[in-house]
Amino acid sequence: MIAKRIVPCLDIKDGRTVKGTNFLDLRDAGDPIELAKRYADQGADELVFLDITATLEKRKTLVTLVEKIGRELDIPFTVGGGIRTLDLVDELLQNGADKVSINSAAIKNPNLITEISEKYGCQCLVVAVDGNKIGDEWKVFTRGGTHNTGIEMFGWVEQVVGLGAGEILFTSMNKDGTKSGFEIEALNKMSQQIQVPIIASGGAGNIEHFVQLFQNTGVTAGLAASIFHFREVDIPELKQELQLNKISIRI
Q1: Domain for residue 109, yes or no?
Q2: 157-166 per-position pLDDT tens digit
Q3: How many domains does the chain have?
Q4: With CB atoms 3.0 to 4.6 Å apart as the test, which of 67, 81, 160, 239 could cross-link to 165 if both were Cys?
């Protein structure tokens, strides 16, 4: 059985960690370097760093901050935000990132998925999918959740995996920051249709939500932000409860 992963997320704006609800109403959540070190010490399995305004501001990810965070970590570190070229992927991987995540750039240039996968290996590439359920359909959003591409989400996920994505980071915009639980139905459907690992994001509010996620879907990782940032849930306690529920985790 594949061990499930616990993944804190650092959403970065102006060099600080922030957190909002439904991608809006951002509030400060602390220094990203201090948070990264804390999560590594607590036993997080991986860390995700997302420069959430890089694409909107048409600039590249904060490489210097990535380097500083990377020096504090001995766990896998995924970086996303404003990544549009192989040169930037090179720079990030040379400065502490273990994997890169692309979203808007994948929509604009799907060939970039294949280019990154072929040069660095599919295990190095995470395609982030921000989905919003509108009526009965899931649509893909980009530019920090501000732009509806009109693309049907499940078809897009299959397409990016076919192009070489090694992992999917699915964020439910409907659930983001609500602490009402993960998007179980959509995650279950997605995990049945593709064979690559899926990181579930959006809706984590307590330990039971992680138990439900891993018991009712085939996803391999649960991501959260505010409940970790503001110490509402401690990672060691979360992992202990998952073990008690006979869910395989990394110790």
Answers
A1: yes
A2: 999 999 999 9
A3: 1
A4: 160
